[in-house]
Design goal:
- By secondary structure, the chain is mainly beta.
- It contains 1 helix and 8 strands.
C-alpha cells in the first residue's frame, strides 16, 4: 500500500510540475532536458534483465537564487524490457513500465547524481521460474540509483541501480524480485 501512495504522490507531483510552466528559455534553457534514451542491464534473484527505456525530463530547477548548488529533477521514464528467468524452460518474459523519477544532482553540467522512483509495470506473465510466481501481472517497481553525468555533447550518464518488483500485497503470493543493474543513457 505504501508503494501505491508513493507512486501516486510522485505521479501527481510530476504532472503538477509539468503543468506549472513551459520549457525555460534563455539562460535557464540548460535546466530543461526533454528526452533521454538508454539501456539498463542487470541480474538478480529472477534472472537476467535488459531494459531499454526513455525518460521525459520535465524540469530541473536550482535550489537557491544567487548561487545554485543543487539541481532537482522530476520526470517520467517509460521502459520496455525483458527478463530471462533462472531455471525456466520458457522464453523471455516481457515488462512494460512507467516510473516517475525524482533526482538530485550538482549544478554543473557534469557530476554525480542520485535518484529514486516508484512506478507501475505490466509483465507478460505471472510465472517467473520453476519455483517463483507472482499472483498478478501488474507490479510496482521501486528503484534507487546513483550515477555520474559526464557533461559531453550527449550528456551521457552511467549509473548503478537497485530495482525491486512487487504487487504491494494486492494479492498473494507476492514474492517480490530484486535486480542490481548498470544503466547508460544519453540525451537526444
Amino acid at each position: 500500500m505504501l508503494r501505491s501512495v508513493i507512486s501516486i504522490i510522485l505521479l501527481s507531483s510530476a504532472f503538477a510540475s509539468g503543468a506549472a510552466g513551459a520549457a525555460p528559455t534563455g539562460e535557464d534553457a540548460s535546466w530543461f532536458d526533454p528526452v533521454r534514451l538508454g539501456v539498463a542491464l542487470g541480474a538478480g534473484d529472477a534472472g537476467f534483465d535488459c531494459t531499454p527505456g526513455g525518460a521525459l525530463e520535465l524540469e530541473e530547477r536550482p535550489l537557491g537564487d544567487e548561487f545554485p548548488v543543487v539541481r532537482v529533477w522530476l520526470g517520467f521514464e517509460a521502459s520496455v524490457g525483458g527478463w530471462n528467468p533462472h531455471g525456466s524452460n520458457s522464453s523471455v518474459m516481457g515488462d512494460i513500465g512507467f516510473t516517475p523519477i525524482f533526482r538530485i544532482q550538482g549544478s554543473g553540467r557534469s557530476g554525480p547524481f542520485a535518484e529514486i522512483g516508484a512506478g507501475m509495470h505490466l509483465l507478460s506473465r505471472t510465472h517467473i521460474s520453476d519455483s517463483k510466481a507472482f499472483s498478478t501481472a501488474f507490479q510496482f517497481g521501486d528503484r534507487i540509483a546513483a550515477g555520474y553525468r559526464f557533461g559531453d555533447p550527449l550528456d551521457s550518464e552511467l549509473a548503478v541501480r537497485f530495482q525491486h518488483y512487487s504487487n504491494a500485497g494486492i494479492k498473494e503470493p507476492n514474492p517480490g524480485i530484486n535486480f542490481y543493474m548498470l544503466q547508460y543513457s544519453a540525451r537526444f
